[in-house]
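hey so u asked for the seq, here:
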Amino acid sequence: MKTAAFLPLWDRENGICRSESVMFDGEGRAKLLFPASKILKLCNPTLGKVYSEGRDFTHTPGSGELRLCPGSAIPFLTEAMIHPDPATAKLYPHPEADAIADSVHGRPVIFSNGDFFARTQVECDYQTAGTVEFPRTPRRAPGELPHVTAKLEKKEPVRLLLLGDSISEGYNATGYLKVPPFMPPYIDLFAAGLADRFGGPVTAVNRAVNGTGCRHALEKRERWIEEEADLLVIAYGMNDFGGMEPAEYASVIKEIMELRLGRFPETEFILVGSMPRNLNWGSLPEGRAEAFVQALRGLGSERAAVADVCAFWTRVLAGKDYYSMTGNGVNHPNDYGHRLYAEVLLGLFA
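ran it, structure tokens below
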């Protein structure tokens, strides 16, 4: 049975957006991805709260903006919260960190590996207004991933294996945090989506490790090399942006693939291009995520498809703000972000 966790982001036929994550700012405003003719539901599932139009928020039909009512119970994020006082902020890697240093503004920037953002963001279901062009996920080239596709179409068991960093391990999906609404990380959404779409059993084994870059897969190959799987999903990048150049990154990913093929020659691959980080944080130049995806494209082949999460995320972010989509403030997705990841991976099998 389908649950809300496995439903698509958008009902394209009827023009409905489901559980879109939004964050109200200190001015009492929140931005939807599309203009809305009607707000169907606004809630915070982590807090177990449903909010009422006219009491907690207002919306003008045809607008893509929500506004808080005076005395509203809806949480919001102020500029002072985004950049906390350095004198009182608990900076990462403090175990109770609420901020991280190295902001482009010279001040700490908000950070939380717990459920702060899940408790502060809200989810909105709404009917879009007028003609809406929903973003399309990248498609794989004809003939790519033939072995896995054939098994799916025959409803044979398919086994996925994931290598990656904290994003792939599951940070900050509410299922990983063990708080409502218990949304699974993207690899589990992907597996469930494939099973639902094709009707056969699909299982996922997650070998991603928090804080790692792509070299970790080579250094700790014993953790995954003997794991049988039809499809190896390789999802590094966020922790490599500052430590290597795109060509070096692609070289390591290629080595991982060759190592796998030496043990299991029938393996096929999905190479995931990482979401971008919060541009308010860190000293890296813009465009690193895009450059790393471009390097991955050089590894694409019949047995290796590229899942460009970066491009899809950037397209959605153009209509929203980073604090509506982040799970930790700087470089992790929230539930909505994990759904974006899963949408891109599922799009390869559309």
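The first strand starts at residue 10 and ends at 11. The two ends are 20 Å apart (CA to CA).
lmk if thats what u needed
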